[in-house]
Amino acid sequence: MPEVRLHVNGTVRTIEVEPRVSLLDALRERLGLTGTKKGCDQGACGACTVLVDGERICSCLALAVQYDGREITTIEGVADGDRPHPLQTAFIRHDGFQCGYCTPGQICSAIAMLAEHAAGMPSAVTEDPAEAPELTDEEIRERMSGNLCRCGAYNGVLDAIREVAAR
User: Fold this and answer.
1) What SS3 class is residue 92?
2) What's residue 137's pLDDT?
3) Which stretches of the chain score pLDDT less than 50?
4) CATH class of 3-77
5) CB contact at 8 A, 28 and 34
6) In degrees, to the nearest 5, what angle opens at C-alpha 142 toward C-alphas 36 and 79?
7) Per-residue model confidence as pLDDT tens digits over 91-109
8) pTM over cut 0.85
9) Where in the chain is the domain with CATH 1.10.150.120?
10) What is the pLDDT of residue 125?
11) Superfamily assignment of 86-165 in CATH?
12) Which segments of the chain belong to CATH 3.10.20.30?
């Protein structure tokens, strides 16, 4: 079995995993980081979203061995010590969750989405890809479209992201 060194939430963790084990399963079952959720196991719902080197991925579609030595951030690692990430606080303030199952993936995705926008990356609805896009509600909805909420807390998610983006 290959040995994999995963840099997770600022800590290096070495585990032995079979080559077919997903990053999601390695995080949850081998490292005990259960904040990242298993939803569809097909990359369609976004519940398993984590950050790798600052970019969002669906961890259910990634093999753990592919991420040897890469910097992985799960929902457990987005806070600054005892201080919640601003998006965590905004999600609470704007009721951007109901059952909470999708919330970790939504927050990780929103963190990366705001970074993508700040870097000037266009989305499918950006009117002029040559110009820095304005972060409209339509832009936020498009950029977060890979994260589903079966409870329908989308308005709270949008409000939370909009609040943090305005800072």
Assistant:
1) helix
2) 96
3) none
4) alpha beta
5) yes
6) 35
7) 999 999 889 999 999 999 9
8) yes
9) 86-165
10) 93
11) [2Fe-2S]-binding domain (1.10.150.120)
12) 3-77
